[in-house]
Backbone:
């Protein structure tokens, strides 16, 4: 079933519209990030998957503390939500650089993945704001909603990285991190 969903996303005209809007909105960022160390061949693969582990790890841990830690864990959950938001910035930049090199179905799948991650990030912004205002119950609900969206968006990114090989890097794929051309 997940493979059918991913194929449908990759073939969808709606996904193409999402990709076009993101290209317009993020075009300058994509061009900039492709010339930074966030888009490099040093590791032999994209740095984006490694960075996602930090972001999603913080956010999953936020919800685990919310659900299992009780009121004593509120401060830790708030800190993790905030650290996840900080980590999401370079993660998104690295992902945008990768996405800028995709075409066809991969580009459409990546656009829907990015839209999901944008939505999850906004939910975590709301979660952090609610927590800082002392509204931990609302913060918990927003974090859980964010994590559910991350799960779906992660399936799409996992498909791109693992089944389509979009995370692979070789020095012939892109210029070195210090190349400004």
Residues:
């Amino acid at each position: 079933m997940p493979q059918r969903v991913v194929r449908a996303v990759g073939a969808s005209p709606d996904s193409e519209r999402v990709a076009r809007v993101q290209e317009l909105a993020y075009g300058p960022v994509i061009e900039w990030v492709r010339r930074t160390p966030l888009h490099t061949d040093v590791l032999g693969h994209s740095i984006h998957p490694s960075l996602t582990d930090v972001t999603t790890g913080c956010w999953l841990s936020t919800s685990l503390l919310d659900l299992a830690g009780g009121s004593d864990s509120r401060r830790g959950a708030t800190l993790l939500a905030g650290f996840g938001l900080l980590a999401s910035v370079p993660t998104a930049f690295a992902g945008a650089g990768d996405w800028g090199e995709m075409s066809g179905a991969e580009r459409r799948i990546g656009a829907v993945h990015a839209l999901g991650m944008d939505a999850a990030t906004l939910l975590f912004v709301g979660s952090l704001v609610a927590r800082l205002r002392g509204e931990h119950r609302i913060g918990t609900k927003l974090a859980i909603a964010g994590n559910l969206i991350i799960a779906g968006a992660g399936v799409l990114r996992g498909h791109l990285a693992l089944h389509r090989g979009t995370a692979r890097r070789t020095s012939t794929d892109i210029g070195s991190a210090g190349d400004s051309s």
Notes: Residues 2-163 form one domain. The two ends are 42 Å apart (CA to CA). The chain has a mean pLDDT of 87. The chain is about 75% helix and 0% strand.
